[in-house]
Amino acid sequence: MKKIINRLQEPTPRFFQRIRNFGLLLTGVSAVISTAVIPLPAILITIAGYTALAGGIASAVSQTAVVKEEKP
């Protein structure tokens, strides 16, 4: 567990930082759509749910990428 925590705290490459930020953007937009006060079509709500899932996964996976990893 400690190795995973250390990996998450190491610097992330620039490309993966962009993927992480885009994933967070997707998650935020889908949250706004899902919690909209006005009634929206069901297909839009469904797409927003899948977009939130994809954005969360993209953010989590890209955060674990590191610049350099030592060989065991």
Automatic annotation (TrEMBL):
Q: Keyword check for Transmembrane helix, yes or no.
A: yes
What are the leading ranks of the lineage? Bacteria, Pseudomonadati, Bacteroidota, Flavobacteriia, Flavobacteriales
- UniProtKB keywords: Membrane, Transmembrane, Transmembrane helix
User: What superkingdom heads the lineage?
Assistant: Bacteria
Q: Which residues cross the membrane?
A: 21-41, 47-67
This protein is called Uncharacterized protein
Native source species: Kaistella gelatinilytica
